[in-house]
Amino acid sequence: QVQLAESGGGLVQAGGSLRLSCAASGRTFSSPAMGWFRQAPGKEREFVAVISWTGVRRYYSDAVKGRFTISRDNAKNTAYLQMNSLKPEDTAVYSCAASPRGSSWEEPNYDYWGQGTQVTVSS
Questions:
Q1: Which terminus of the chain has fewer Cβ atoms in its 10 Å neighbourhood, N or C?
Q2: Spatial distance between the Cα atoms of 7 and 4, rounded to a whole number of angstroms
């Protein structure tokens, strides 16, 4: 079983930055892609970003492209999401997930999920 734990969420003013971390532990599987998703109150969960095992492939949603950067440190079993120029509409619970099926923006391809961390952006 793989456990994922997010950290780094909090309250920030519009225009500010936050860096989320996702630490993996337990029985890891080989070459997982790591993704970030978010769910705002009253809305469906949506894809934010994904990074391949090697880090070569990185994809972002249009909503965050140019402002967010996904990265990973495989030696530390940790993925990161650097969020800059935050907007009130970025307010959501952010969850990381691991996929054995390669980089994907589709939730069914992810087998393991963290509990999420709250990000609140004030105007």
A1: N
A2: 10
Distances, alpha carbon 55 to alpha carbons 8, 58, 102, in Å: 21, 7, 11
The rounded Cα 80 to chain-centroid distance in angstroms is: 7
Taking the CA atoms of the chain, what radius of gyration do you get in angstroms?
A: 13
Strands (E), 1-123: 2-7, 10-13, 18-26, 33-39, 46-51, 58-60, 68-73, 78-83, 92-99, 112-113, 117-122
Backbone angles phi, psi at 107, to 5 degrees: -55, -40
Which residues touch 85 (CB under 8 Å, ≥6 apart)?
15, 17, 67
- For the four alpha carbons of 9, 3, 64 and 89, in that order, the dihedral sign comes to negative
Q: What is the per-residue pLDDT across 78-123, written as a single tens digit (0 to 9) for each?
A: 999 999 999 999 999 999 999 988 888 999 999 999 999 999 999 9
- Give SS3 for 95: strand
d(CA 62, CA 46): 11
